[in-house]
Design goal:
This protein is 27% helix and 14% strand. It has 188 residues and is an alpha/beta fold. InterPro entries: Leu-rich_rpt, LRR_dom_sf, LRR_N_plant-typ, RLP23-like.
Amino acid sequence: MSTSLFPWHFIFSILLGISIPVVSGRCLGHQQALLLQMRRNLEFDDQMSTKLAKWNVRSPDCCFWEGVSCEDGRVVELDLSNEGISGELDNSSSLFSLHHLRSLDLSCNFFSSMIPSKIGNLTNLNYLNLSNSGFLGQIPREVSQLRNLVTLDLSTTNDYESTILLAANELKLENPTMKVLGSEPLSA
């Protein structure tokens, strides 16, 4: 009887060993560290947040966090829309070290800074939504480095409140041609 179980036990052991890599779509440690560092540097209301406030609470695996999508343990989509994020987003943000990002949504927040030039580091982006996010000033020419970008949304609503705010804090694109944006060498 024990000899007939041996082949099944052997096959089961092999299948179990094969399934471990399949299950290991877990967030890579450095990806999770970058997300947590970014979260620490963002200003947001814990009571209003539906995503950021829950990171690292429900699951220690960042691939299961609200607003985060992964492939092979790497963050490829980040949706932080409507999180009530305020303050500045600057070039030192660990966000710009998430090099596998293909989709980034920071819409409907309250940033009060220029769009950081390090946005050009996210060269895999094909979707970037910064609509109604409070960014101001010149759109950085580093946006032209986003060669895979298909969708760029910088729109604002045209209601009464936002019109008043836009009078003082408007995004600008001077000489708006991609030729101008891409023709000058960029300093590192």
